[in-house]
User: What shape does this take?
Amino acid sequence: MQKIAILYDASQAVLSTFDLDEVLQRILVIARDYFHLQNVAILLLDKETQELCVRSQIGWDDGHDKLRLPVGHGITGIAAKKKRPLYVPDVTKDPRYISSAKTTRSELAIPMMVRDEVVGVLDCQSDNLDLFDKETIDLLTLFSTQASMALQNARLYSLERRRAQQLEAINAIAKQTTAVLEVKELLEKVCSLIQEAFQVSHVSVLLREEDDLVLRAHYGNLTPRILEGGRLTAVAGIWGRALSAGKTVIEHNVHSLPDYVGLYAETGSRMCIPLVSFGQTLGVLLLDSAETGAFQSGDTQSLESVADICATAIQNAHYVERVKQLAYLDGLTGIFNRRFFELRISEEIERARRFDTGMAVIMVDIDNFKRLNDEFGHLLGDEVLRQVSSIFHQQLRKIDVVCRYGGEEFAMLLSQTNSQHALSVAEKLRRLVETWQFPGVPRRVTISAGAASYPEDGTTRDELVKAADAGLYAAKQAGRNLVVPAPTAQKGWAHGSRG
Assistant: This one.
């Protein structure tokens, strides 16, 4: 009767709470105290990997609490596979024993069952040989049944609470993403919101660019192995499989994969979700965890909903960006307009000031353009503007900016450039235009240019533009088809021939 009373008290204790961690701890304490056990643990079954994972333990040696045991391996794994208790009175004589504590002499593994399904194993170990008699095994088996019910109730409650939290997170992410229309800011926001809401180690967004994926944003506490902006082949690793199949892929243990591509040093498991909007695949949402087996299929639906929200937001942001870009493009030539020049010159000056790298402004004018229009018509004049713009755009570096400043005048911003290099670039452009064969124009077309550099010729927008304009004016006055530096730099310096 005393043992039945103990069983009743123990059952009431574990069934009186829905908190999973508290239920687990109560099961362990009751097993230890009521049944006088030195070491006791609960290993829960990961259905997807078919591994038993230590969820909570008392008395195990340090370093064993991360154990993942395949079903069928060890005493606990065999008990789970056979769905019945397994008792070993002397572990030193049983080759199936896997040590978790050096002092253990006998071990009893009892499957924790809900209906006919194994949810885990209650593992009981003692420092004494052959501690467990039949009555104790029967009593612990009955207790395990009650503990399994408590565990299942707690897991269901935890799952419902998790779902509610995920729905709140999805709603919050949806509200936040609709409020942000700048692509970079949006991606950074998305990564931080998902990382916080879903408690993962790291979140990344990789977007498609031609045949590659580019790491556009990431947020978390893992150590990156590639920089933001880094390119990855779209057919490699988990994202290659996710994009090919058009569905979410989970890697429970990345270290066991031959095609694993490591973005972060500590990654143990990973989930990859394609970002699809209106049938167009934009890239992938990547979630990394430092733990193996961290992602459950039950979380997939919620995270796919988040990915859909993010994909739509990214598409909207791209659309807004394109609209903005159109506002900064010259309709005739396709290069940037004066509005963009005014936006960028301040940024370039600030960058040059902060990093002490220098920058330059070149002002260019097509010589005698009005006469060309009068002689050959505006259609041919427009074609000359387009071709000159194309020459400039093709010859400058990607980090440089060329704009149509107005009429036949152009403005260029050269990053990380000194005065000598700016003059060399301008002279190269002058020579190219001078020798270019413009269809329908029977005479040569030439340009004049003035160049000013930061900080020698000015430290503000007005000072630099005024200095470059002065060089351009001096080139015109000297006979055109010339490159002249700002007068404050090297008076009398000029390249080219009179035209």
Residues 172 and 379 are 54 Å apart (CA to CA). The chain has a mean pLDDT of 87.
